[in-house]
Design goal:
The protein has a domain of about 45 residues. It is mainly alpha-helical and about 70 residues long. About 55% of the residues lie in helices and about 0% in strands. It has three helices and no strands.
């Protein structure tokens, strides 16, 4: 049952909105002018950097041989 719930969330139209709210949560109240809650901005940034780094590594591995220097 958890597998179905996870799959449902991953393909839902609400997921981008949920992630956006975690990245940039609304203020605590409409009247308050205090600081925004911390949310998960840093966690999401770290995750995104990790995903990008992994993708770059995977895409560069096939061409790594082209960048090797010839022995002297």
């Amino acid at each position: 049952q958890v597998v179905y719930a996870r799959t449902s969330l991953m393909v839902s139209e609400e997921l981008p909105q949920i992630l956006q709210r975690c990245y940039n949560p609304p203020r605590r109240s409409a009247k308050g002018h205090g600081a925004r809650p911390a949310g998960a901005r840093q966690v999401l940034l770290d995750f995104a950097r990790s995903c990008i780094s992994d993708t770059i590594d995977q895409e560069m591995k096939p061409s790594a041989g082209l960048f090797l220097s010839l022995p002297d």
